[in-house]
Amino acid sequence: MISITIPIYNEHGAIEALFAKIKVVMDRLGRPYEVIFVNDGSTDGSAAILDGLAARNPEAKVVHFRRNFGQTAAMMAGFDHASGSVIIPMDGDYQNDPEDIPKMLAKLEEGYDVCSGWRRDRQDNALQRNLPSMMANKLISRISGVRLHDFGCSLKAYRAEVVKDVRLYGEMHRFLPIYAKWHGARITEIPVNHFARTTGNSKYGLERVLKVVLDLVTVKFLDKYMMKPMYLFGFWGFIFFVASLLFVVWTFVMRTRGYYYTQTPLPMMAVFSFMTGMICVLMGLLAEMITRTFHESQNKSIYLVKETRNFTAR
Questions:
Q1: Which of 90, 99, 86, 80 shows the shortest CA–CA distance to 7?
Q2: What is the C-alpha to C-alpha distance for residues 210 and 217, in angstroms, rounded to an integer?
Q3: pLDDT (tens digit, 9 = 90+) per residue, 17-69?
Q4: What CA–CA distance (Å, rounded) separates 275 from 36?
Q5: Domain locations in the chain as residue ranges
Q6: Pairing of strands 86-89, 2-8
Q7: What are 191-243's pLDDT values in tens digits?
Q8: Is residue 55 classed as helix, strand or coil in its secondary structure?
Q9: Disulfide engineering: 46 pairs with which of 42, 147, 214, 255, CB 3.0-4.6 Å?
Q10: In the chain, where does DSSP find H-type helix?
């Protein structure tokens, strides 16, 4: 069974055409499949279109959220409801090409656990989307050690066992290959088609670059310090102790030369500004750990399902 998961948020103009193309490709492939649409609180009539598809096509399954929870939550819901041995997420705006699915499945049959799509000829705004994406991809690849050209491409193929136990929060879906790598997965990448958007509006702007950088800091922290956070906190604690000692020594040196350390507020302001910045960063990382512990210890979901279509009782 192949599970194709598609987050939907206000994409009513693309849903039926996308499903029709998927159906042609998968019927030609001749393997059992399901298409799981996750309606992430759409307000444009997408819900009615999805229900209509589910009524006419048993392989089309729908998960309706009670409100908008974001792409990561929608992708996580697709994984949770998938029953296939291979899971293929893709965007709902019809910018991904279903014709690339057989090529990805062929790569998995070669022994890989993850096949990632690379939008080499990306049909988006060069300045607003392509350039920031290229810079972010290079940064992620360098820091994470996972050599991919396009972490942001939703079209990927995963063996189910690689992603079923992964819990995603915030906007971490773009880092799934990194999580898979932590689990020992073999990862490859192939160029895929990318179409220009013809319906709806893009849900992302330049502010996404900042989110990617902050999420990358979190991922790097989880990679190196999730199981030993004291190494990080202890290191910075040691730095601050050394800095404190140096400031004390500097104070005595200045006093012997006839100066008072308190004569200017600038050194103190610099110290407090630096410490405040570091405390904010460390508190942010600590909050990430607390959030994950909260969700996983209570098995608390990051989304709320209103109703579903074509799913058997579990």
A1: 90
A2: 11
A3: 999 999 999 999 999 999 999 999 999 899 999 999 999 999 999 999 999 98
A4: 48
A5: 2-204+301-309, 224-297
A6: parallel
A7: 998 887 666 555 555 566 677 777 777 777 777 776 677 677 777 877 887 78
A8: helix
A9: 42
A10: 15-29, 46-56, 71-81, 101-109, 131-144, 160-163, 176-182, 207-225, 229-256, 266-297
Following DSSP, what letter does each residue of 189-211 receive, concatenated?
Answer: EEE--BPPP-SS--S--THHHHH
Of 210, 209, 137, 133, nearest in space to 178 by CA? 137
In terms of C-beta density within 10 A (0-12 exposed, 13-18 middle, 19 or more buried), how is residue 2 classed?
buried
Q: Tokens 């579990």 label which residue?
A: 314
Residue type, 153: C
Q: How far apart are CA 127 and CA 206, in angstroms?
A: 9
Give the CA count within 13 Å in the CB-facing half-sphere of 309. 25
- Degrees (nearest 5) of the Cα angle 126, 130, 135? 130
**Residue pointed to by tokens 């008072």:** 260
Tokens of 258: 């006839």
Class for the domain spanning 2-204+301-309: alpha beta
CA gap 61, 237 in Å, rounded: 52
Q: What pTM value is reported for the model? A: 0.75
And the tokens for 5?
A: 């998961």
Q: How many CB atoms lie within 10 A of CB 132?
A: 18
User: pLDDT digits over 134-159, tens only?
Assistant: 777 787 878 777 888 888 888 999 99
Single out the residue of 202, 201, 200 nearest to residue 15, CA to CA.
Answer: 200
C-alpha angle with apex 169: 280 to 151, nearest 5 degrees? 95
Radius of gyration over alpha carbons of the chain, in Å?
24
- Give the residue from 88, 74, 87 showing the smallest Cα distance to 39: 74
DSSP reduced 3-state for 33 = strand
Both tokens of 58, joined, read 């048993």
Q: CA torsion, points 285, 288, 290, 292, in degrees to nearest 10?
A: -150
With bands split at pLDDT 50, 70 and 90, how would you rate the model's confidence at 181? Answer: confident
